[in-house]
Design a protein that fits this description.
mainly alpha, three-stranded antiparallel beta sheet, two-stranded antiparallel ribbon, 5 strands, 9% strand, extended
Length: 216
């Protein structure tokens, strides 16, 4: 078996571990103050992957779960559209600034991001978690979780660049990012596979974040 800094890191063995053992290990890794940031991120990425794999295997398409998927779809549709609109408003402000000060303006790229708050369940009084479930939730929403730091909910086509002369069409971008539509395709919305069991579906608004990066 292969170990990394005292933790099992043999992928062939990890996928055979029961859920309880995986989650106990996830908590120990997360709370280990002696691990480097890179090692912790690598280990958490592997352990959370196999934890999610087990949760996926136990997922059943019962009426209640289908309702949760529908809630997730609706939430993603609302929040993604809001994020794109917010990025668009910032982009328009940046273009005005660029026109007003062309000699000193520094180009930026603007991209919308979606995050799930690590205290989400505190907002829902009827949702009762065990202490262990709350701790796992905090790991999932931690910056140490590489999947949380670089989520794949929003695609690259949601970026706005002030350095180009492209005339962005806001409606076309929303159709592309939210519904995956090209041209006159009919919109369809489905839950991203990576969010099905990693984040339980709650019908509340997720925070919207906008990332602005200087362009070299």
């Amino acid at each position: 078996m292969i170990f990394k800094d005292g933790y099992l890191n043999d992928l062939d063995t990890l996928h055979q571990l029961p859920l309880e053992v995986l989650e106990d290990s996830i908590l120990r890794i997360y709370e280990d103050k002696y691990l480097s940031l890179d090692t912790k991120a690598d280990l958490l990425g592997d352990y959370l992957y196999f934890q999610k794999h087990i949760l996926d295997r136990h997922f059943t398409y019962a009426e209640k779960n289908l309702q949760r998927i529908s809630e997730m779809n609706n939430l993603l549709e609302i929040q993604t559209t809001e994020a794109i609109h917010k990025a668009w408003r910032i982009y328009q402000d940046e273009l005005i600034e660029k026109t007003a000060h062309p000699n000193i303006y520094r180009n930026v790229s603007i991209s919308p991001q979606l995050f799930v708050p690590n205290d989400l369940y505190n907002m829902i009084p009827e949702k009762v978690l065990t202490e262990k479930e709350e701790r796992i939730w905090h790991v999932l929403c931690s910056c140490d979780n590489p999947k949380y730091r670089s989520n794949d909910i929003l695609t690259d086509c949601g970026f706005f660049l002030t350095s180009t002369n492209i005339k962005y069409d806001l409606n076309m971008i929303i159709r592309k990012v939210v519904y995956g539509c090209e041209g006159n395709e009919k919109p369809t919305l489905h839950i991203p596979a990576d969010t099905r069991s990693a984040f339980p579906v709650i019908s509340v608004q997720s925070p919207v974040s906008i990332q602005c990066c200087w362009q070299s």
